[in-house]
Write a structure and sequence with these properties.
The complex is a heterodimer of chains A (329) and B (372). Chain A contains 14 helices and 10 strands. Chain A has 2 domains: 4-174, 3-Layer(aba) Sandwich (Rossmann fold); 190-328, Rossmann fold (3-Layer(aba) Sandwich). In chain A, 50% of the residues lie in helices and 14% in strands. With 372 residues, chain B is α/β, with parallel strands linked by helices. Chain B has 15 helices and 7 strands. The interface between A and B is large, with 42 and 44 residues.
């Protein structure tokens, strides 16, 4: 029986799953992803996490517990310090394996390799090689598997650039769709940019199915993940000081792009309650948008108590407002 | 040019000394108060941490008094502090305040980068003067640290409650007033003399609590609701994990000076936190371990609401507490903190520690100063 490794369907799952999946599969390891978020999964996480942790971290705890109960041999919780030069993710990601280890009892072995590309980009290979070694694989197999993982990741990025959202891309890839070159249906009459952390907007339970709701209202949804990195890097370079959070920088760069684009009718900024970087990126986006007065902005804050009805009302109001605005022009 | 700077506890004494020494026109912002906080909160992002709100309030209040240039520290993350200046600049810009910001980013490679930034404020003053000014500020930082340590020791032992607080205020002024090294030493001697004259019961063995957490709320009495003074009055000896001079050395001098720094604390953090998590998260855990080893009776962690590194530390603190058998308590402050509620909780925690200590028969002498 192959060894089973568990990957929580939370946090950076929406950014790096194809890489991890491709790597472990090529090593002949069975990859088990935790089940989709439900109230039960979230509640379990909330119970184990410290009160002040943010919603995504609590949810991550829930998914870890889900995997523990489903009986995996290993848990893959890399310590994602940095994924590019001189930028971090968030302090909570730096301490994530420690937080999990000290708050959830009876865990299987955790593979917590450190990914720190802030000084050297080759560190990604080093980290994954470390994970492969812990699973008893040879250097040659690891090198091959790493190549495979990178290929998968690039395919994933290509699908995202076409206009698929990351959770859809992952699904498409699971279904065996490898090299698609036509974009998904984006023929609705209005386009709204959803700016927020991937783990907040793509998780259907946490975001209260925000994306589908917008689509049903006749709105195309685009996110920072649909943009190429160079563009984001260039736009975020307008800030007087380079932002040192990778995810925050992506949000700012894409918001700066969207606010000038003629195809974008509105921007929705999604933040989780008490998120440190979001409090700053949200503020910068809001102030810059307000100075330009071109694109309307809706600020949504989500936490474990958010009621669905309130969110629907605000979305409807926002979409209505955009329509009136158009009619008036 | 009228230079101002944010408050962080008694740091204004050092900055004032440094800038005055260089004949730079300065405006010391009014001490952080309810008004500072209200103004700051009004214009800050809702989920920003408390220090940002207070500092913004400081700047606006300093602007009212005529300041036009802000001198402050920066950082390279992942703690939000490194981006404070950028956010505050945006806010001040929208408010219509024309203020120039000089941000002292920690040097990436060499300390000369820092000196270049300092030069923006100091203008054409010769380097020797600048170095002398920084050195003088450093001595003042050390003096403030000594004063605080003495107060921590004496407060739970004084026989007439309030004497230490009175002298503390007085001595701060003495340190602040000193215009050169000689005067500073003179005033320090005077301070030591005065401390020795306060009647105290040196045989008493009070409950000892270690204070750990986020640096700003630890150093700023207004932000931490004067937790040190309150604990002292409850008959508790307080020791803090980090002092002003250590912060200056670690943060601005890149740890060049060989004084006790945060390195030691960080080294005690594994296996609880195995990696740097930004801010002082790792130091919080490491210092807790250190306090436990030194047989302190309890540890209090203070942090501003939504502080990311401290949340990591907070979620790991219970394990440390269990492993070492040391009670811990977490105090989170924001603009809504009221001291009555906090005092009740502190009293309960101190009672618990005292009772625990009583059982082991270590408490000697009556607590004479519990009323606040």
């Amino acid at each position: 029986m192959p060894v089973k490794i568990g990957i929580p369907r939370a946090l950076l799952y929406y950014n790096y799953f194809p890489l991890w999946n491709g790597f472990f599969k090529a090593l002949g390891i069975e990859v088990k992803v935790s089940s989709r978020t439900t109230k039960a999964v979230l509640d379990k996480g909330v119970k184990q996490a410290v009160d002040d942790a943010c919603l995504p971290v609590k949810l991550f705890f829930g998914h870890v517990i889900d995997l523990r109960d489903s009986g995996v041999d290993f848990l893959f919780i890399p310590r994602m310090v940095s994924v590019e030069r001189k930028a971090y993710i968030c302090p909570k990601f730096l301490g994530l394996p420690d937080m999990v280890r000290h708050n959830i009892p009876d865990l299987p072995q955790i593979i917590d390799v450190t990914v720190n590309m802030s000084r050297n980009e080759k560190n990604l290979f080093k980290a994954l090689a470390g994970a492969g070694k812990q699973l008893g694989k040879s250097g040659f197999a690891i090198r091959k598997a790493f190549k495979r993982g990178i290929e998968e990741q690039e395919r994933f990025h290509r699908l995202n650039r076409l206009g698929f959202l990351p959770h859809e891309s992952i699904e498409q890839m699971e279904n065996g769709l490898l090299d698609q070159n036509f974009p998904p249906n984006l023929s609705r009459e209005m386009t709204i940019a959803l700016v927020g952390h991937g783990y907040n907007i793509y998780d259907q339970y946490i975001s209260m199915n925000l994306i589908e709701k917008l689509r049903q209202m006749g709105v195309n949804v685009v996110t920072p993940d649909n943009l190429v990195d160079d563009l984001i890097e260039e736009r975020s370079g307008e800030l007087p000081k380079r932002m040192f959070w990778t995810l925050g920088k992506r949000m700012i760069g894409s918001a700066f792009h969207f606010m000038r684009s003629d195809h974008i009718d509105g921007i929705i900024h999604v933040a989780s309650f008490g998120c440190g970087p979001d409090s700053f990126t949200g503020e910068i986006i809001e102030r810059h948008l307000r100075r330009k007065r071109r694109v309307p902005l809706l600020n949504l804050t989500i936490d474990e108590h958010t009621g669905e009805a309130g969110v629907i009302t605000r979305l409807e109001a926002f979409v209505d407002m955009i329509q009136w605005r158009r009619a008036a022009q | 040019m009228k230079v101002t700077f944010p408050h962080m506890g008694h740091m204004y004494i050092c900055l004032k000394a440094m800038l005055r020494y260089l004949d730079i026109d300065i405006v010391v912002p009014p001490k952080s108060s309810k008004r500072t906080l209200t103004i700051g909160t009004q214009h800050s992002p809702e989920f920003a941490c408390l220090p940002l709100k207070l500092n913004l309030g400081n700047f606006i209040e300093a602007h009212e008094k005529g300041a036009d240039t802000i001198l402050m520290a920066g950082g390279v993350g992942p703690c939000r502090f490194g981006y404070y200046a950028q956010i505050q600049r945006e806010i001040l810009k929208d408010l219509g305040y024309e203020m120039n910001m000089v941000v002292l980013e920690p040097p990436e490679r060499h300390i000369s980068e820092l000196l270049v930034r300092i030069k923006k404020v100091t203008g054409n003053k010769p380097w020797t003067d600048v170095v002398k000014a920084i050195r003088f500020a450093w001595y003042k930082a050390r003096a403030v640290d000594e004063l605080e340590q003495r107060a921590h020791k004496l407060r739970p032992r004084e026989k007439e409650p309030g004497r230490v607080d009175e002298l503390f205020k007085q001595a701060l002024e003495w340190i602040d007033e000193a215009e050169d090294r000689e005067q500073l030493n003179e005033n320090l001697k005077r301070m030591r003399r005065e401390f020795a004259r306060i009647p105290a019961d040196y045989t008493r063995k009070p409950v000892r609590i270690g204070l750990v957490g986020e640096i700003y709320v630890m150093l700023e009495p207004f932000a931490n609701l004067e937790i040190e003074r309150h604990l002292g009055r409850m008959g508790v000896e307080v020791e803090r994990s980090i002092y002003l001079s250590e912060w200056i050395n670690d943060h601005l001098f890149m740890g060049l000076l060989k004084v006790k720094g945060s390195k030691e604390a960080r080294n005690s953090a594994p296996p609880y936190i195995n990696h740097f998590v930004g801010g002082h998260g790792q130091e919080t855990i490491g210092s807790t371990v250190r306090f436990a080893r030194e047989k302190y009776d309890g540890v209090i962690q203070v942090q501003p609401f939504t502080c990311m590194p401290e949340i990591v530390a907070e979620s790991i603190l219970p394990t440390v507490s269990r492993d070492f058998g040391i009670p811990t308590f977490c105090l989170i402050v924001d603009e809504h903190s009221g001291d009555a509620g906090v005092l009740t909780r502190l009293e309960a925690f101190v009672d618990l520690l005292a009772r625990k200590k009583d059982k082991t028969g270590e408490v000697k002498g009556e607590v004479e100063c519990v009323d606040i």
